[in-house]
Amino acid sequence: MEGPTRVEDFFALANKKGLVKDGKIVAKHSELLAWLKSDIGLGHGHANAMILYLRIRTNDPKLKQMKKQPR
User: Fold this and answer.
1) Which one, of 5, 8, 3, 2, lies nearest residue 56 by Cα?
2) Which of 14, 52, 61, 67 meets the CB 3.0–4.6 Å disulfide criterion with 19?
3) CA-wise closest residue to 56 among 30, 16, 17, 20
């Protein structure tokens, strides 16, 4: 099975799978990670990068929380 080739494809697949609904992420990070690694075949780092893309694409409020965390 050939996987998605464009980042937009991942967004469409996440919608189809019910992980994103009405333009919002409804799945936990661990659920997204498991889906991208097992069903899509991404490695851990690429899966996390795709989750970040999905968070940016959906304007996820967790992005603001991530920015506020001290380093």
Assistant:
1) 8
2) 14
3) 20
The C-alpha angle with vertex 32 and arms to 26 and 33, in degrees rounded to 5, equals 155
Q: How many CA atoms lie within 13 A of 20 on its CB side?
A: 22
The 3-class SS string of 27-65 reads CCHHHHHHHHHHHHCCCHHHHHHHHHHHHHHCCCCHHHH
Residue 28 · residue 63 · CB < 8 Å: no
Please give the backbone phi and psi of residue 6, each rounded to the nearest 5 degrees, phi first.
Answer: -120, 150
- pTM, 2 dp: 0.84
Beta bridge partners of 66: none
Name the token pair of 52: 């970040």
